[in-house]
Amino acid sequence: MAELGDAKWYVIHTYSGYEAMVKDSLEKLIENNNLGDYIVDLKIPMEQVIEEKNGKKKVVERKLLPCYVFIKMIYTNQIWYYVTS
User: Fold this and answer.
1) Helix axes of 77-84 and 19-32: crossing angle, nearest 10 degrees
2) pTM for this one?
3) Could you list the pLDDT tens digit for every one of the 85 residues in the chain?
4) Exposed, middle or buried by CB within 10 Å (0-12, 13-18, 19+), for 38?
5) Residue 35: helix, strand or coil by DSSP?
6) Sequential DSSP letters for 26-70
7) Whole-number Cα distances in Å, 18 to 8, 22, 39, 48, 66
């Protein structure tokens, strides 16, 4: 098995608005197939923005890079097959 230091960040392109669904599906895939040793981290880049509506300020989280999910994993052909299918 490869070392954790071999894990690198990869980018998955998704449809806009489906980022959370892709992340949830990948988390279930990791749990069901015991891939925690290979897939280290999943991120959807978010930023906090202050919106003003009707004179009231509100902190809202927005996607920094819509359509993208970042995945830190140790690349093997089998893992990439799991991720892309």
Assistant:
1) 130
2) 0.81
3) 556 668 999 999 999 999 999 999 999 999 999 998 999 999 999 999 999 988 899 999 999 999 999 999 999 999 999 988 8
4) buried
5) coil
6) HHHHHHHTT-TTTEEEEE--EEEEEEEETTEEEEEEEESSTTEEE
7) 23, 6, 20, 19, 9
